[in-house]
Amino acid sequence: MAATADAAAPDLQLRPSPLLEVSDLRVTFGTRLGSVHAVQGVNLTIEPRRTLALIGESGSGKTVSAQAIMGILPRTARVSGSIKFKGDEIVGRGERELRDYRGRCVAMVFQNPERSLNPTMRVGTQIAEAVGCHLPVSKQEAHDRAVELLRMVRLPAPERRFYEYPHQLSGGMRQRVVIAIALACDPAVLIADEATTALDVTTQAQIMELLLDLQQETGSALLMISHDLGLAASYAEEVIVMYAGKIVEQAPTKELFAGVRMPYTQALLDAIPRIEMEPHVLLPVVGGRPPDLAVIPPGCSFAPRCPRVQQDCQDTCPPLQQHEPGRWWACWHPLGKEPAQ
Ligand SMILES: Nc1ncnc2c1ncn2[C@@H]1O[C@H](COP(=O)(O)OP(=O)(O)OP(=O)(O)O)[C@@H](O)[C@H]1O
Ligand code: SF4
Ligand SMILES: [Mg+2]
In percent, how much of the chain has pLDDT > 70? Predict the structure, then answer.
């Protein structure tokens, strides 16, 4: 996965064709209080069998970007730019065409399994419905595929679980069912939007391992969305950091953690608890608040919160640029790049 812009890395020719190519994606919501610029020029590519993490604070535009990719934005959203799946444009497609694309090409797992599941329906029936929605299968075939999917997501006794209701399962089991629904039609790209946030740490790790195993089994790509940079460090090959609707840093995970450039990414990193920390030590928090996306100020949108801010940051917005092979950042005064004295 890589940011798509003019400065292509030399190894790109060796990379497989991307499944998804998002270019200059912009999403604006018309609200009573004015236009909310939720996503402002996002570029990314998603390649088969790779895991990309989209990280950022609440309100940075992660979910809206994913909703645009899924084609599930509300009518109040104005979308521009391009989203191509295997070369075919998605932006501007009608609902009927999108129905075929969703589920088979791209599927999404949401944060809260309670919201994704119908409490009055057996879990197996919900999976079988998802199968039947997209594939021309008989009732029996949909049933068999649902049991197979329950087995795939490592739910014990899948034949029995098929007939259970969501309330009879634990939170982790319910999230496995939601993943089974997303996998019903073998999507090429799976988007997991805070898919493990509501779960305890052990279950969170189990679900992440499951998603990675399934990715290897099915050859799909995984776009994991989280506010937790630690989660990205453990599971993603590449990390994209968003702030106020824009990508502000992007790098292969190892290189990012070897030397963060953006002060905002550093603040997110400092907020990760570490095993070597003294107990009861308060974690640093990113002070201040993100900007109002209805009023875009000139200059860097992180400036009011940034410990490295200088006058030029307030005058001109730093563009996202590739400064080293595969490493992108949008900052006039990046960490680790201080001019020699
Ligand atoms: N339907 C909508 N109408 C108006 N504004 C919206 C709508 N949906 C999202 N927004 C705004 O778009 C911005 C980005 O929202 P988004 O849900 O993408 O954030 P996020 O990064 O996913 O945050 P979180 O970590 O809390 O899920 C926010 O300012 C949000 O208020
Ligand atoms: S451009 Fe300036 S204000 Fe923005 S992150 Fe970099 S140093 Fe901080
Ligand atoms: Mg979100």
Answer: 91
Q: Which atom of ligand 2 is nearest to the CA of 310?
A: 2
- Contact assessment for residue 183 and residue 153, using Cβ atoms and an 8 Å cutoff: yes
| Ligand 1 contact, 223 CB (< 6 A) | no
Which pLDDT score is estimated for 276?
Answer: 60
- In the chain, count H helices and then E strands: 12, 12
- Which residue of 32, 57, 64 sits with most ligand 1 atoms within 8 Å of its CB, as the best mutation to test the pocket? 64
- Closest among 170, 180, 231 to 210, alpha carbons compared: 180
The whole-angstrom separation of Cα 302 and Cα 306 is 6
Output the six-digit token pair for 99. 């129905």
Distance CA 338, CA 341 (A): 9
CATH code: domain of residue 39: 3.40.50.300
The burial class, CB within 10 Å (0-12 / 13-18 / 19+), for 270 is middle
**Any ligand 1 atom below 6 A from CB of 73:** no
Tell me the DSSP string of 249-290: EEEEHHHHHH---SHHHHHHHHTS--TTSPTTPPPP---S-P
The atom number, within ligand 1, closest to the CA of 74 reads 1
The answer, yes or no, to whether any atom of ligand 1 lies below 6 A from the CB of 29, is yes
Residue nearest to atom 28 of ligand 1 (CA): 59
Q: How many domains does the chain have?
A: 1
For ligand 1, what atom is nearest to the CA of residue 293? 29
For 300, the token pair is 């860097």
Span 197-228, pLDDT tens digits: 878 888 888 889 989 988 888 889 999 999 99
pLDDT digits 0-9 by tens, 304-319: 999 999 999 999 999 9
Residue 203 located in a structural domain: no
**pLDDT tens by residue, 105-114:** 999 998 777 7
The answer to the question of residue 253 being in a domain is yes
Q: Decide if 61 is inside a domain.
A: yes
pTM: 0.91
